[in-house]
Design a protein that fits this description.
A hairpin with a 6-residue loop joins strand 7 and strand 8. It is elongated, with a radius of gyration of 27 Å. It has helices spanning about 1-10, 15-20, 70-85, 90-100, 165-180, 190-195, 225-240, 250-260, 265-275, and strands spanning about 25-40, 50-60, 110-120, 130-145, 145-160, 205-220, 280-290, 300-305. By secondary structure, it is α+β, with helices and mostly antiparallel strands. It starts with a helix and ends with a strand. Helix 3 (about 70-85) packs antiparallel against helix 4 and helix 7 (about 225-240) crosses helix 9. It folds into two domains: about 25-160 and about 205-305, Urate Oxidase; about 165-195.
């Protein structure tokens, strides 16, 4: 009985390998996406283990082949993600395995990894800290025996206070002041109390939660994932990133930073672009910001990239 079972397994048909394509042609990428995998990251900051969705693909360069070996891609991913920390060196080795298992039909390979990275962030003023979640994507593309390029993509959430709205609010406050005080009758204590009241500050600018999507193209010899480095660069350029754990002093500092950093979407995009242009370990970048307007039912957007 055992011998018959083995015989049946040996004779199971492999249509993808044994049957030629009815319409011949090469394909740039073939494989799988959204493969569920556990993930531990070798990054420049401590990140708790998470769940990843992986895209694993190879080129189909033999136009007579009907299909690739999907299971070989999955098993290679399973072995790596289940037992190793993921960085660009690991992903490079994984694409080498993809090509070794498809040497008769493929010359190029890629792996893309999407996950949410939890990073602990310090409060603005107090001693508190809290977790912030950043959507992250890693991409490595291999052409034959060389890495073509590697990418680190991530998103940052921040607050944007409208400069136009702030100017209009200040005008209303000035008019309100003129209606309540005369030049001949100004009492410092009364003015000070009035400024601190709802009657005094009768208008506030509108602000909204905003998102910056950033794609960095790293040098091909990059190994460890420089995630916190580039998140810090983007957040420091904006100055108004959203906070996790806050006390009143943190909220007050957040209000001060928003007032000091009034941002159109154009301003935010230019700030990030300028900060990324200073980084020597980048081969390029792309960014897009979305200001999820509180005044409008649509977003304000701006996009920029390296030259």
């Amino acid at each position: 009985m055992l011998d018959k079972t083995r015989q049946n397994i040996c004779t199971l048909p492999d249509v993808a390998a044994d049957v030629k394509a009815k319409v011949a042609g090469t394909l740039q990428w073939v494989g799988m996406s959204d493969i569920e995998m556990p993930i531990c990251i070798n990054a420049d900051t401590e990140i708790p283990p998470s769940v990843a969705r992986v895209r694993a693909e190879v080129s189909l360069d033999d136009e007579s082949k009907r299909g690739i070996h999907m299971s070989r891609l999955y098993l290679a991913c399973d072995e790596v993600f289940s037992h190793q920390s993921i960085d660009f060196q690991t992903l490079s080795q994984l694409t080498e395995q993809f090509l070794q298992s498809h040497s008769e039909m493929s010359q190029n390979a890629l792996v893309e990894v999407d996950f949410d990275a939890l990073i602990r962030r310090k409060a603005l003023v107090s001693d508190n800290s809290g977790w912030r979640s950043y959507p992250v994507s890693l991409l490595l593309v291999r052409e034959k025996d060389e890495i073509k390029h590697i990418e680190l993509d991530f998103s940052v959430t921040y607050s944007s206070t409208c400069p136009c709205s702030a100017a209009l609010a200040r005008t209303l406050i000035q008019e309100n002041f003129k209606n309540n005080f005369s030049p001949k009758d100004l009492n410092f204590d009364e003015v000070l109390a009035w400024i601190g009241s709802e009657q005094g500050i009768n208008a506030t600018p509108h602000a909204q939660r905003s998102t910056a999507h950033v794609r960095t193209i790293l040098k091909n010899d990059c190994r460890q994932i420089p995630l916190q480095k580039y998140i810090d660069i983007v957040e420091e350029s904006l100055q108004t990133v959203v906070q996790a754990a806050v006390k009143r002093e943190d909220e007050q500092e957040f209000a001060r930073l928003n007032g000091k950093n009034l941002l159109f979407c154009e301003d935010a995009a230019r700030r990030i672009k300028h900060a990324l242009q200073q980084q020597d370990d980048l081969d390029g970048f792309w960014l897009r910001v979305h200001h999820h307007e509180s005044l409008h039912p649509h977003d304000a957007t701006a996009e920029a990239s390296s030259d």
